[in-house]
Design goal:
The protein has 165 residues and is mainly alpha-helical. The chain has 4 helices and no strands. It is elongated and about 50 Å long.
């Protein structure tokens, strides 16, 4: 859920990447985006964590590649460039990651815990949608994904909640 677009050699943008991982929900709950959560047999925790980390790792790689293309080595992006990148690339990728995690059947007994991760990530992303500068490191107030990252890390979604992209 980290919102850090790690674009090596571009210090201003080195604040963004791993946003958007969280947990799924049972078929009887509503996901953070207002859609019904995953249906089907619950995954084991290890299966859930492996699939969730894979979703986040893929999204993080896509953000990294896009960032390296958008901000070539030696070029200093403007605040507007960073915010456009956040709006056009990072936010949609994070939303896909959140939706992907939310679609996974949560491990039996962990539904509330993984829903809390999804909800925290979605709440942080909704704030970033309103103010993309939150993802550039230029805004005051710190990382909007701090709580979601803490929850994801504690659950084992380390590709989602840390800079281990």
């Amino acid at each position: 859920m980290r919102a850090r677009v790690v674009v090596p050699l571009v210090g201003l943008v080195a604040g963004l990447v791993l946003a958007g991982c969280g947990g799924g929900s049972s078929s009887s709950t509503t996901g953070a985006s207002g859609t019904s959560g995953a249906q089907g047999a619950a995954l084991s925790k290890s299966e859930f964590v492996a699939k969730g980390n894979a979703i986040c790792a893929q999204g993080n790689q896509e953000i990294q590649a896009a960032g390296q293309k958008a901000f070539p080595k030696g070029q200093q992006p403007t605040q507007a460039d960073e915010e456009n990148f956040a709006t056009d690339t990072v936010i949609p990728s994070i939303q896909e990651q959140i939706d992907g995690i939310d679609a996974l059947p949560a491990p039996s007994g962990d539904e509330d815990q993984v829903q809390a991760i999804v909800d925290a990530a979605q709440s942080a992303l909704d704030k970033a949608k309103q103010d993309p500068s939150l993802l550039t490191g230029q805004a005051q107030g710190g990382d909007p994904f701090a709580q979601a990252n803490k929850l994801a890390d504690a659950y084992g979604l380390t590709k989602c909640g840390s800079d281990n992209g």
